[in-house]
Amino acid sequence: MNLSPETDRPEETAFPAGIYVHIPFCATKCPYCGFFSVTGENDPGRFFDALGREARLRAGDAGRSDPGGRPIPDTLYVGGGTPSLAGNGRVAELPDLTRQLFGLRDGAEITIEVNPDDVTGERLEVWRGAGFDRISIGVQSLDDAELRALGRRHDARSAVRAVEAARDAGFASVGIDLIFGLAGQTASRWRRTLESALALSPDHVSCYQLSVEQGTPFARREALGDPPAADEKSQRDLFLEADRVLAGGGFEHYEVSNYARGRAHRSRHNGIYWSHLPYLGLGPSAHSFDGRQRWWNTPAVEEYIDALETGAEPPGGTEVLTDEQLLLERLMLGLRTSDGVPLDLVMVYPRGEEVLEELSEAGLVRIGDGRAAPTAEGFLVADRLPLLFID
Known about the structure:
Shape: globular
Structural class: alpha/beta
Number of domains: 2
Oligomer: single chain
Strand order of the largest sheet: 7-8-6-5-4-3-2-1-9
CATH superfamily of the largest domain: Aldolase class I
CATH class of the largest domain: Alpha Beta
C-alpha cells in the first residue's frame, strides 16, 4: 500500500491541540463503569501537587507557541472520575495553570465533568469564575428506577435541578450524558427520558450504550446468568429511537454517541480525538498522542504520585504507530462522525471503491462533497466499517 502525503498524516498541528486532565476520585463506583477511578479516603492536596508537577514536566516537551508560531491548545477538558467531588479550589486552578504552562487560545473551550449531586450554586460560581465555560453533567437517566439500577447516587429531580442551575450560572454550553440499553428498558420508557431531557434545553446530549465491562459488578452479574444489558436488537432499536427523538428536537447526530444543538455546540475537545490530532493527557491512566507516538500513565494513584514527588515522570507505556496504523486509525475515527472521511483516504485501499459502493447501496454510508460519512444505520456498525476496506 502506498501512502501519499495527503493521506498518511493529518495536517501538521502543534502538540498538543487539546489537553485532558483526569481526576480519578469517585464517592462510589458505579457497577457498570470501566473507567479508572478510586473511592474511599484520598488526599486531593497531594494528588493535585503531583498533577502540577506532571504538567510542568510535560510543558517542557510541548512548549508554548508565540503569536508567530504554531497554534497553542484550543481546549481543556477536566474529566474523571468525578472532578466535581475532589478539591474544588484546586480544580478551579487548572485553567490558569494550563494557560501559564501551555497557553490557551482566546475563546478556548474549557470543560468540566460533574455529577448532579455535587452541583451547588457556590460550586458553579467557582467553576465559572475559574474560566470553565462548558459543563457536562452525568445525568444518565431521568427515570428513578433506572438510576437505582445503574447504582447512581442522585435521583431524577436532583438531575433536573443541576441542569437548570448550570444554565442559570451562565455556562455557554450545557451538556448532559444519558445511558441506554438496560435489560428490560422499553422504547417508550427511553423516549420519556429523551423528551424530558429535551425539555431542559441542553446544548449537547451524549447517549452511551450500556456495555458490560470486564471486572465490573455488571460483568460478574452477567457471568451468573443475570445480564444487566438489553439484547442486541433492543439496543439497536433504542439507538435509532434516540436518533429520531433528538433529531426531532433540533439536534444533529454528529458522532456515534453525541448530539449537538448546532455545530457551535459540538465538543471541540472530543473533535480533536476524532480528527486524529495531537493531545496531551495529564493524571493517572491519561493517554497522550503527538501525531505518531501514543503514551499513557499508570492508573495507580499512589505510584503516579510517588514518581512525581521524586521528580520522575509517572510510569506507564508507549507505542509508535506505523503509517498503516495511522491510516487505519484516521479511517476508524472519521467513520464515527457525520463529517466522515475524504474519499481520497478510502481510495488508498485496493478495494476502497468497491466496498464504498456496497456500503452506499446498503444504506450504511452516504457519499457527497468528496467525502464518505455513515448514516444513522451506519453508526450502528461504525466500528466494523473500516475493517471492510482492509484487503
